[in-house]
Amino acid sequence: MPPFVLTPHIRSLIDLAYAEDMSAGDPTSEALFEAGERALAKLIAKAPLVVCGLPLLPIVAHRVDPNLLFTTLVSEGASVEPGELLLTIEGEALSLLLAERTMLNFGSEHPIRSRSRWRCAITMRSVKL
């Protein structure tokens, strides 16, 4: 798989997404968590899927807080099953919650990609001797 390249266009999309998502701040999170409170976030597959977009997530999240620590547990393009842990993120709770929506928007699994990979896998299995 070719390496991920952050282009000026992608950087602009991230900026636009944050301008939309954070225009009013995050008053709910600010009411529930104190500054400096630490948290651990886990990205877990809810359905069978093909991993797509994980290299972009730290770039998106570090726009909010460059101190968030990512541990990626699966490779881009991997097929995963429900319940499989894809990555963890450690850092300040307010930062995690502020970055969460935009990260999920950029990193969401798309059903067409998963179905295409699934059909390919089924086809490949049916021709094996």
Short summary:
The chain is α+β, with helices and mostly antiparallel strands and 129 residues long. It has helices at 8-21, 27-32, 56-61, 93-107, 111-127, and strands at residues 38-44, 49-50, 69-72, 79-80, 85-92. The radius of gyration is 17 Å and the shape is globular.
Provide an overview of this structure.
The protein is α+β, with helices and mostly antiparallel strands and 129 residues long. It has one domain: Alpha-Beta Complex (Aldehyde Oxidoreductase, domain 3), CATH 3.90.1170.20. It contains five helices and five strands, in the order H-H-E-E-H-E-E-E-H-H. The strands form two sheets. A three-stranded antiparallel sheet has the order 1-5-3. The chain is globular.
Task: List key phrases describing it.
single chain, 129 residues, alpha+beta, Aldehyde Oxidoreductase, domain 3, two-stranded antiparallel ribbon, 5 strands, globular
Topology:
Blueprint: H1 8-21, H2 27-32, E1 38-44, E2 49-50, H3 56-61, E3 69-72, E4 79-80, E5 85-92, H4 93-107, H5 111-127
Antiparallel strand pairs: 1-5, 2-4, 3-5
How many separate domains make up the residues?
1
CATH architecture designation: Alpha-Beta Complex
Q: Trace the largest sheet across and list its strands.
A: 1-5-3
Main sheet overview: 3 strands, antiparallel
| Superfamily (CATH H level) name | Quinolinate phosphoribosyl transferase, N-terminal domain
Report the strand count. 5
- Helix share of residues? 40-55%
Can you tell me the residue ranges where pLDDT is under 50 for at least 5 consecutive residues?
Answer: 111-129
CATH topology: Aldehyde Oxidoreductase, domain 3
Distance between the termini: 28 Å
Q: What would you report as the Rg, rounded to the nearest angstrom? A: 17 Å
